[in-house]
Each structure stands twice: as structure tokens, then as C-alpha cells.
Amino acid sequence: MQSQAQRRRSAGIRQKRGPLVHTAGTPCVSTLDALLSPFRAMAMFEDCHIVTPDSPGMDGDTPLHVVAMDGDVDCLQAMLPFVRDIDVVGDCGNTPLHYAVRWNHPDTAAMLIAHGADLMRPNDDGDVPLQEMRGQPGFQALCGMFDKDHDA
């Protein structure tokens, strides 16, 4: 059974985001607002109060989930200073790391892990990101780094 996020993805319901231009130094409110603006325009976030990258939409997924699913490393890097919960739970109990792995984005997954994403957090079906990484092409090097530390 597909989640709402998977149905959106397979139906091609995605909004392209342009490149982000932000200044060096401490993140500011105007940068955050510009970063979240394209997400607020998406149907999945309609009538939702999106104030941070981990603010939930209608199905529980967040802008952070969308970026992880899309593998948009630049946008993820811009979001990270504003993220309160890197393991925010969305649709079907999935975290952004689940989506990065499921949609085969090793660079995105590595960045999430480097910022504290939990490799062993199960979703509602009991799927654990580290176990899912083992079955995906492109994740061998990343798995090798963590297999020694986890008994999955």
C-alpha cells in the first residue's frame, strides 16, 4: 500500500524550487520565509501553518520530507539551521531519512545522518533506514560506516 507521499511522487505532483540565495552568517527570518515560501504554495501544505522545515502538512509530511524525497542537497543544507527535529515523523511514520533512502539519495541520507538522523528509527511498518540502505544501490559505502556500530 502506497503512502500519500508515494502517490504524489508517482503521480508526478511535485513543485520545482529554484536555487536559494542566502547570506553567510546566522540564519534570519527572511531567509527562512524565502526558503519555505515554495512549500507553502504546494497543495499538500495548503491551510497548514508552515513556519519551520519540520512543520507538518496535511498528511504529516514536512518540507524536510519533500526535500529528502527529492534529494535536493542544496535546499536541505539551507534548511538544516532551522530544523528543530531531524527525525520528524510524517506519513506512515516515515522520517526524512526513510524518504532519502527509499528514493535512492545517498548524499541526502549522508547529510541527514551527519546532522543526527536516527538510522534505527522504525516507521509504522517496522522499516528501519539502515536495513533499507542495505538493499539500495549507492548506499554500500554509507552502510559500511555504520554496520559496525548497529545490530540491525
Task: Describe the overall structure.
- This protein is mainly α.
- It contains eight helices and no strands.
- The longest helix has 12 residues.
- It is globular.
- The two termini are 24 Å apart.
- About 14% of the residues have low confidence.
- Tally the beta strands: 0
Q: Quickly give the structural class.
A: mainly alpha
Radius of gyration, in Å, reads 15 Å
> How large is the share of residues in beta strands?
under 5%
Helix fraction?
Answer: 40-55%
Poorly predicted segments: 4-24
Short synopsis of the structure:
With 152 residues, the chain is mainly alpha-helical. Helix content is 42%, strand content 0%.
Identify the notable features of this structure and list them briefly.
152 residues, globular, mainly alpha
Q: What's the arrangement of secondary structure elements?
A:
Blueprint: H1 4-10, H2 29-40, H3 63-70, H4 73-79, H5 96-102, H6 106-114, H7 129-134, H8 140-147
Helix pairs in contact: 3-5, 5-6
